[in-house]
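Q: Structure tokens for this one, please.
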Amino acid sequence: MSSTPPVPGAARPAAAVDAEIRALLLSTGGWLWGPTRAEYERLRDEWVEAVRGEMATAA
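A: Here is the predicted structure, written as tokens:
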């Protein structure tokens, strides 16, 4: 799981969040429940926002 909470207003690149999602899935063997499910959902939401931000910047 992530050891540091996200800093409000400081977006990480989508690739960095994606790498953390992949590491979480590998560490759990693909099983997401309880705290790992909550962490995955937080990371997913962060990734979506990062992709949106990158798309807006590119446009």
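A few notes: Residues 14 and 51 are 6 Å apart (CA to CA). The chain has one domain: 14-58.
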